[in-house]
Amino acid sequence: MSEVLTFAAGTTAHLINKYHIHATPVDWPTLNQKADADTRFFAFRGPNGGHVNKLFKRALVAVVQLDPTEHIQEQLDQQQVNISEKWCDALQDFIQGLQELPVDKQRQYRAVQNFHLMELVEELPHLPKPEKNGEALMRYTLEQIRTLEILPQ
Question: CB count, 10 Å around CB of 97?
Fold first, then answer.
């Protein structure tokens, strides 16, 4: 049973791991729509080898649809989104981080996005990574993620 669904995150992995937020265009499936019935956790693979350093619960805190170029708090108020001040601050910091990416990477984050707010389960100090960093979605067992440094393809 593959309980962990990992996503290629590339240049945004450091932001995802710092703020526990992942952004996708609104016309893409949400994280939960990509998961199957066995998925209990999400993880994100970084650039240059795809290291995984955090494990997140599949049960998301929230999915918030926002235009990152507009005032965040006003959008949250208009949509009557009820998230804590901590999450509001994290969203603003995450969006600021997106704006600091190289210009060619910023382009995709200038339109309305689904922002997935995630609860951290645990850190993975052994930094597991796949044998080959390739496919956008890769599945692993919880035991593999917690114990192996090199994950099977």
Answer: 17
